[in-house]
Write a structure and sequence with these properties.
- The structure is a single chain.
- The protein has no helices and 7 strands.
- By secondary structure, it is mainly beta.
- It has a single domain, classed as Immunoglobulin-like (Sandwich).
- The chain has a 4-stranded antiparallel β-sheet with strand order 4-3-6-7, with no helix packed on it.
- InterPro entries: Ig-like_fold, Ig_E-set, SoxZ, SoxZ_dom.
- This is Thiosulfate oxidation carrier complex protein SoxZ.
- It comes from Bradyrhizobium betae.
């Protein structure tokens, strides 16, 4: 199964810029389906980016984040070729992890 995470990380000097797109329904639990029944809440609770085993970005999310969230940030201290591990867990016990090389 393909990962739900697409990521691009590029290093320019001391700054590494990260862009990630995560496929997830991010259902709030307040929306009804075509039959008029509520769609149960299903959302990412924790999103984590690690570079060389050190946390560089951690987010605790709730239902206010939209479907298929996009994240962009930058940090210092990484080099080209370093590993960047991205992982998420959701409120239903789902999870995904991917590791990318910084270009």
């Amino acid at each position: 199964m393909a990962s739900s995470i697409r990521v691009r990380a590029t290093s320019n000097g001391d700054i590494t810029e990260v862009q990630a797109l995560i496929q997830h329904p991010m259902d709030t639990g307040f929306v009804k389906d075509a039959k008029g029944e509520l769609i149960p809440a299903h959302f990412i609770q924790e999103l984590k980016f690690e570079c060389n085993g050190k946390d560089v970005f951690v987010a605790d999310w709730g239902t206010a984040v939209s479907k298929d969230p996009y994240v962009k940030f930058s940090f210092r201290g990484a080099r080209k070729g370093d590993d960047l591990k991205i992982s998420w867990t959701d409120n239903k016990g789902g999870s995904d992890t991917i590791t990318a090389k910084i270009a």
